[in-house]
Structure formats: structure tokens, C-alpha cells
Amino acid sequence: MKEKKSNFSGSIGFVLAAAGSAVGVGNIWRFPYLCAKDGGGLFLIVYLALVLSFGFVLLTTDIAIGRHTKQNALKAFGTLNSKWKFLGYLTFLVPALIMTYYSVIGGWITKYFCTYLVSDGSILSQDSYFTSFITSKVSPIVFMLLFLALTAWVVYRGVEKGIEKFSRFIMPGLILLILGIAIFSLTLSYTDANGTVRTGLQGLKVYLYPDFSSLTVKRFLGVLLDAMSQLFFSLSVSMGIMVTYGSYVKDDVDLNKSINQIEIFDTGVAFLAGMMIIPAVFVFLGTDGMASGPSLIFISLPKVFASMGAIGRIIAIAFFLMMGFAALTSCVSVMETLVANCMEIFHKSRQKMCAVIGIYSLVTAVLICLGYNILYFEVKLPNGTVAQLLDIMDYISNSFLMPFISLLTSILIGWVVGPKLIIDEVERNGEHFKRAKLYCFMIRYVVPVVMLILFLVSTGII
């Protein structure tokens, strides 16, 4: 089989690029909220267990399929078994849907970062500011364009000169920023109007201490489903990204070691995100301050920064710079997957396909922006939540397609192709796959059952 011309230069470049894809805004605005909602340390324990079991299985499968076939996701599954090529088309849909709104969120982050750069940012802490911003007709589109242009530029430069070089610079910076802000959060203290003193260390206890009070089977299942859904957000699995990145990995790279490093990177950043946000929000807003999704980043945290006084602006600039790094590395991986697949479909150059995907991303992102004003509507999703355009795209990609794709992939590898193919790929260079037995058991018996349950729950069937 002909070797692909585009490759990561080595294991470090691959790990940083893959970790950059995995570390996105989902880690930072979703992980802390779920942790606060689901009993602090209880969620952490469940999530860590899932990372070491399900996360490792799904990540190993995607990356090994990519390297074994030297194909992007669109053709990789058909290469394994011609009757399963439809699975490649399903995986292509996920990044195609995610790309419609990810640059919009990146634009929001860019707006907040720029506002803190040129002002004290006090306007951002007002209750109505975020709503007035996203419902305006021009400003969200302008900042989305800035973010999308930078994303397209990185992808345009290619795998080694673009994605890898960018990740080598951005990822260490992201880690240093998030670590610095997390440490600073632990030093905070605040006395409210009632004279109650709240400290960052008390917030850390809220974050780490497992809350087993009123633990029931129903509550535990809720925590389990939250942690599992976060796993998809966190590891970029079942969306073709890791298959595509795996196809760029050279044969002499130790996959076993690289996958372990990606797991550590991603889980470590998610943990630090919780340590960064939960203590800070607890100090200034109490236990009721944790909001879900964008509200946490764009409404709750600006209030926290405003309460810090003069240093709050500096911390806010560092925070939104870090958020921008996280969003950019993830958006680059999504666009790269689309570009790489389209290069194989149409047999055109990277530059031409990057232009085409860029135009697609621009048009669809503008529609998402207009979904908050001119095109605004609400529908009730099968899982019971009320959604508008961005939420619909997110639901279809993350709650519907990704569990379904994981279910089908586990059946393909576990029962059709056989797990030995993946194990042999991991052990290609003679390295021992220590978790091979666990992998076989999980991919054949556990993953299909759990993915089916998660799919049925997320679609409202059960």
C-alpha cells in the first residue's frame, strides 16, 4: 500500500497534535460543570475509570485503524471490510456538523479576549451582555471570521508545517496558562455581605471530595452517562479525527506509548480546568454559581474576574487566551479531517480543498450566527431539551451520531474484523500491548452494550 505523503515527523508531533484536538472548549466549560453537578470527586472517580477503560479502547481503535489502513476515515472502514464503508460516511458527517458551529464559539472567545485587551472588561460581567452580543447581527460574524481565518491558515500549511508546528507551540503554552490560573484560583479568598469567608482551598474540597450522600442507582447512572458523554467531547473519538491523525503516524512510532500520553494530556487538562474554575466560582459566587455550557464561561466567569479587582483583567486575558488556544487546536483538527477526506474524494490539492471547506465553514457558520436573530426558532429535541440551530447541530453530532458510530465500530472490530488486527497494529514494532486482554473484552462485550444504552438514552427512547 502506498505510503501517504503527509505525516507527522514523529511521536511527539503526533501526541501534541492529537492532544490538541482532544483538549477543546468541552474540557473547559463542560467538565467543571458536570463535576460540580455530579458530586465532585464522585464524578472524577467515574470519569477516570471510564478514561482508562472506554476511552483507551475507543482511542486505540480509531488511531490503529488510521495507521493500519493509511486512509482517512471516509475510506478506512471500507478498507477493513467493503460492506462497512457506510461507516466512513457516517464519521464524515460528524466533523461536517461540528464545523458549522465550532468557529462560532471560537468567535465568541475571540470577542471576549479582544474586549479584555482594550478595556477593563467590566461590561462583560453585565447579565445581559452575552445575550445581546450573540443576538446582534454583525459582531458575532466578524469575530467568527477572524477565528475561522486562523484555523484555515493552519490547515492550509499542511500536516507537518501547519498542524504539527502549530501544536508544538500552542500546547505547551496552553498547559502553562491553565496550570498558572489553577494555582492562582487556590489562593483566592472573599468575604460576602454576611461576613462568610470563602477560600479557593474550600472550593478545591468541593471539587475533589466525593459526595456519596443520597447516592442511588438512578443518580449513579446519571453520573455514569454524564461522564461517558464527556468522554466523547474530551477525546475526539468516533468522529473520524483520530482515524485521520492515525493515518499520518509513521510505522516506527510506538502507538501504545503515544495513546497513553494522549490520555494523560487530555485527562490532566480536564482535571486542571476543574481546579481552575470550580474554586474561583465557589469563592465569588458560592456553590450556586456553576452554570452549564457557555453560561459558565461567558456569564459566570466574567463576574468572577470583575470581583477580583485590578488583577481580574490580567487573569481574564490569560484565561481567554488559553480558551482560544484550546478552541483553535480542536477546530483545526475538525477542519483537517474534512479537508483530508475531500482530498481523497475529489483528488484535488490540499490548497483547493482547504478553500472549499473554508467556504463551506463560512457559509454554515454565518447561518449559525443568524440562528440567534433572523433565523431564530426553537424545537424540542428527543432528549427533552429545547434547542435552537447551534444546539441542534451539537445534538445530532455528539448525542446521536457519536454513540451510534462507537456502537457500530465496536461491532466491526469486535465481531467482524476481529480485535487481533488492532492489537497487531499496536504491537507492530515489537512493543508489548499490556492492556490487550482488557481491549478484547471491552471491544467485544462491554462497549457495544454501553454504547447502545447511551444512544437510546440520548435519543429519548429510554
From TrEMBL:
Topology in the lipid bilayer is annotated as:
Multi-pass membrane protein
Q: Which segments does the entry list as coiled coil?
A: none
Record key words, sorted: Membrane, Transmembrane, Transmembrane helix, Transport
Please give the start and end residues of each transmembrane region. Answer: 40-65, 86-109, 129-156, 168-190, 220-243, 264-285, 305-332, 353-375, 395-417, 438-461
Q: Where is this gene product found?
A: Membrane
Stored InterPro entries: Na/ntran_symport (IPR000175), SNS_sf (IPR037272), YocR/YhdH-like (IPR047218)
Q: Which PROSITE patterns match?
A: NA_NEUROTRAN_SYMP_3 (PS50267)
Chief location = membrane
Full protein name: Sodium-dependent transporter
